[in-house]
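User: structure tokens for this one?
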Amino acid sequence: MDAYKVLEIKQSVFADNNRQADLLREELKKGKTFLLNLMSSPGSGKTETVLRTIEALKDEMSIGVLEADIDSDVDAHTVAKTGIKVIQLHTGGMCHLDADMTKQGLSGLGTKGVDFVILENVGNLVCPAEFDTGASKNAMILSVPEGDDKPLKYPLMFSIADVLLINKIDALGLGLFNFNLEAVKERVKKLNPNIRVIPISAKTGEGIGEWVDWIRAEVKKWNA
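Assistant:
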């Protein structure tokens, strides 16, 4: 008989988090608050995309933003200039948010009367994909300068996303980056046949209309 016990810590942590995430989703559903978990690597244009989204929807929805970072308030400061309710979450060195952290953030933000909350997750293509935040839907951004091989390198992230925004498409015609848009779509669809792929440029506004139409439709379904 072995003199020690083996604990599957990761499995236990995930199982507990998944239960908390399901409970949080139930609470959000009852309160008619749609929570979008937005993920990407650093520098993909998450905050600029958030600003474009706020600009397009602020006159028809009550919006809140949770800005998650290891240790800074740069993004929250930027978003606050729009007049939207925003709160900064510091993860204390962790490279992701889990359901409990998200719940704490929503409590600090206050969701009463808020239709739509954007959670800008920590910039990382690995850890955020592993933890269910309790969000209504998951979105991710892949930018053109990152290259078209990311679905091959980080398959889990693309597998759990409901929508993929391919940002900085204004850079496609410059000849500076090795990025094949059709190859990305093909690779992503193999991983996740139901994913919605929307090319955008947060800088120029191209594709933002399709993106916010997707949000409108999902919020409507959430509240039905």
